[in-house]
Structures are given as structure tokens and as C-alpha cells.
């Protein structure tokens, strides 16, 4: 078993946004190994929604069976009736007749009925839907602590919800296939109020007079819709469609170096267009890096906050290339720029994010001592003046990092304790665990890691700590209970892959295949379109 590192998927699930949170996990446990639970930047075949630059790149698992395949059992065949044995029946010659007194009773015309079997009939196998219901009704924090009924299916969509509100709800539920359909209608349908603004943006033709307040709102909504559509293509790995859309953007500098950037369009859209280059082919990665450096020089003169977004994107790309030195250099540059952007608790909170990434990189290359020294800088302020999420989550991150260091040192009991501490801190948060946030996709925000993302890391790593102490059933129980609590929030690509790998390690082929198909059906029920069939390892 080899210790590796990976990083988590940020709340947007895409490479352009945010610093991912790597997890200490294991690989090569099985034929394909346990994949890390993560996602920030994607590999050439897996976008950040799939997860992260620190994740190991391995050959894809065999193709999965379609989730609609039926596993309905076949009824047991009826028991066969065997007549009582007679000499004629078993081939024994009849005895020689001898003299006997006359028979006064009538001869037998039939044999007595056989004694009925007391063995119970074999029960019919449950359907796949019934197995999924039984899985979701199992023990979880939702049932034991929150005293809520099992979440067998997602709640219905609000019936009166339309437009961009419906689009945001679909993103929150990770129904990315539906996001593509709704966003396409809103941008290109003749009856949509956003269609004209989208056309003028793509052609880079804008009226000279300033827009009205209503037009200004439509402009900002159009940018958000277009950004979400691009993220949906990334999540669904439809890179060709994403590339074709970016090629149509006349305002994009990678298409025309002389193009004038519209003032009402955030630079995050330009950064997203540049990052899309890395998903076409390996030769485009270097062009992507060059274009990001050129864009950074241009953005630095207009909005310093976006320099942090670009440096974060560069760091993720270098991590994918395993260029550790350049990745650390990009993070060092972020520490310098932050002094011009933030102050107080916000400055300390964002520094914590950079130190977190640096420590994880050092763990990735095996520098455990140096990683521990970097993590020691992550201390919560004595008096917190800000209640923003970036400051509130510092104690949670500190416990997670301590667990990673213990895990790297093979002290799995201590790592379990630290991960449990981070989970307890998250459980005490008063905020909602899963909700849509616009700044995760649009704007200069770099770190938008959500509470459910950190909780998934904690429970996944608790399961891995149990696995390394030879408690296979406990590892499976931890991961399954988190899925039952809320699949939309916690059933990620990496958790699905890890759990299915544990099924293979702890059960025979038929049993593990049934469990994997049940988990796949749960993902289908909750419309988790960003989990590919290969993550369930169904052959």
C-alpha cells in the first residue's frame, strides 16, 4: 500500500476556481487502487469536478454497466415430485411367486401421496430499487442525531421556479445535464431576454450609450448563465463543445489579441476561456500557461484580485504537471499579492489557504517534517473580528491537517482522532451545509470550499484510517453513512470510487457488483450527473 496525496473538489467543481483541499489517501490497494477524494483541477481526461491536480492519474477502469440494467431475481424452480421406490422403479427383479392364501381385499390402485417437504421455499430476490431503498434507510447521522426520516429520493423542484433561479437550483443539485439544457434555452432562444445580450457579447458589439438598470441586471445574469454552461461542459467532460463555444467569443483574447475586453464582463470569463485550452490536447498545456502569464500582466493593471485567481490556476496546472517548484513559486507570489488586497482576519484566512496548499504539496513529495512546519503557521486568531467562512473554517482546517500529518507518519489512531475533531466542528456550524453561491463561479473569489466538501474529506479520511488499522467493515460503514445523510452533498466522484473499491476488497464478486449497482442507482436517483459510470467500477 502506497501513501499518496490528492486534493478535493472545490464547491464549483472546476479547475478555474479555488484551491482544492488535498486528502491523504491510499492507492494501489486494488487493481486500480483507492482514488483520492478530490477535485479542484482536472486531469486531461477528468475536469475539476473530477478532481484535482494532486490526484494520481491512472488508467480508467473498465466500462460500467448501464444503471438501468435490471437485477431482478429469478424465482426458484419448483421442487420435483419423486414417486416412492418400488422394485419396478429401481430395476430389481420380481420375486418368484409362491402359494398364498386367497386375498379378500381389493388390490391397491394408487400409491399414497408423498409426505410434503417442511423446507421453506427460497425467497425471491429483491429488485434493485428495493435494495436502494434499504441502503438509504440504513444507519446515518440523519436518523440518529437529526431524527429525520430516511432520504430515499431528492425533494421535488419548486413548481413555480423559472429562469435563472431554476438554473441555480439545478447547479446546487449537480444536475449538470439539465443545466446545459436550461442555459442553452436562456442564451439562444429567440423569446429569452438574455439572447440579445448573449449575441452582442459573443460578437463583441456593444451599444455606446450606458445600459439601463434593467439591462445591467440582464448583462450580469447573462455572464452567470454563460459561465455555468461552461462549467457544465467541464463537469460532463464535453471538452469539444466547450472549445467550440470559446472559439465563438470575439471578445476573448486567445481568439483575437487586439480584442477589447467589455467593462461589464468579469475577468473570470477570460480566465475560464484560457484554462479550457488544457483540456484539448497535451500540447495546449504550455499555451495555456503562456496565456495565463500574459493575462496576469494585463489584469494586474486593472484589478489586483484577479491576479490571485490566475496564480491559483497556474499552481493547479503545475501540480498536474508535477512541477512542484513552479507550483510553490505561484503560491509564494499569492502571499505577496494578498497584502495589497486583504487585511485583518481576511488576510490571515487567505494566508491559511496558501499555507494549506503548500503543506499538502510537501506531503505529496514525502517531505513530512517540512509539511508539519508549514501547518504550524495555521493558527486561528486569538480574537476573531470577522465571521466570514474563510475565517470560521481555520480550526476545521487545522484539525484536518493534523490528521494528514499523523496519517503520513502511519499513526492511524491519532489521524482518526484529528479527522473526528474536524467533523465535530463542522457539525456544530449553524450555517446551511449545501447551497448555491454565485461567487463560486463568477468573479475574483479564489477559495470557496464549502462545509460539505470539508466534511466529505474528514469522513473519507476517517474511513481510510480505519482501513489501515484492518477495520474494513468500519471503513465501509463510515462512508456509507455519509452517503445516506445527503447524496447530493456528499456522494462525490472520489467517495464513490473509494467505496466501490472497498466493496471489491471486502466481498465476493457477485456481492460487490450488487452493492456497486445499488450505489450507482442512488446517484441516478439524485441526478448526480457529474459522477461518471467508471467511478462505480462496474464491469
General description of the model:
The protein is an all-alpha fold. 50% of the residues lie in helices and 2% in strands. The chain is built from 22 helices and 2 strands. It has a two-stranded antiparallel ribbon with strand order 1-2. Helix 16 (394-408) packs parallel to helix 18 (451-468). The longest helix has 23 residues, at 213-235. The protein is globular and about 70 Å long. The model is unreliable at 1-111 (pLDDT under 50).
Any chance you could write out the topology, listing elements then pairs?
Elements: E1 2-7, E2 22-27, H1 87-90, H2 128-136, H3 141-144, H4 163-172, H5 176-188, H6 195-203, H7 213-235, H8 239-247, H9 267-275, H10 284-299, H11 305-320, H12 324-341, H13 344-364, H14 368-375, H15 389-392, H16 394-408, H17 412-427, H18 451-468, H19 472-485, H20 487-490, H21 493-506, H22 509-525
Helix pairs in contact: 2-22, 4-5, 5-7, 9-10, 9-11, 10-11, 11-12, 12-13, 13-14, 13-16, 14-16, 16-17, 16-18, 17-18, 18-19, 19-21, 21-22
List the total number of helices: 22
- Give the % helix: 40-55%
- Order of strands across the biggest sheet? 1-2
Q: Uncertain spans, ≥5 residues at pLDDT below 50?
A: 1-111
